Structure formats: C-alpha cells, structure tokens
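sorry for the late reply, my laptop died twice this morning and i had to redo everyting from scratch. anyway the thing you sent over, i finally got around to it. pasting the sequence first so we're on the same page, its 109 residues, then the predicted structure underneath. double check i copied it right bc i was rushing
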Amino acid sequence: MYEKKVALADHISDRLRLNADQVVKRADLEAKIDHMTSRIADLSAVFEKIRQDRSDLDVRWAAIWKPLNVSAGTPREMKQWVLKAERLIEKMHAAGKISAREKKNSGRM
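ok and here's the structure:
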C-alpha cells in the first residue's frame, strides 16, 4: 500500500511539473504573440507612412514634368528623355549655326 501511495505521489508530482512547464511555455508563447502583434502594428504604421510618402513623391514628380507637357515616367526613363532632349537641342544649335553661316555665305556672292 505504501508503495502505491509513493507511486501515485510520484505520478502526481510528474504531472504537476509537466503542467508547470506547459504553463511557462504558454506564458512565453503569449508574450511572443503580444510582441509580434505590437511589431506588426508598428510595421503597419511604418508601411502606411512609406506608402503616403511614395504617393506624395509621385505627385511631386508628375508636377515637375507637367510644364513640359510630358507624362512623367520612372526616373530612369526620364533621365533617358532628358539626354535625348539635350542631344536634340545640341543638334538644333548646330543646325542654327550652319544655317546662319550659309546665309552669311550666300550674302557674299
């Protein structure tokens, strides 16, 4: 009988330890969930701020190009557009100089 009571006490003790471990694990997991929930909320706020900033920058970017009657593309596309426009302007200046020289030369004859 004594052995049975000791075995039962050991069994109850083991279950109490197991339950205590499970309580600690659950508390740890709940703390992690709370932390992650808070982190998600923080990151959502950061994401929303970034989204709003991006939207504001898109509006400002389009406004820069509006006086030129040009639809704003990506910065890479617009860099190429500017380079092409600069080459065109250079060619126009060169053509103007050639035209002026031709007028001057035709006036001499």
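The helical segments are 2-65, 75-108.
thats about all i looked at so far, will dig more tmrw
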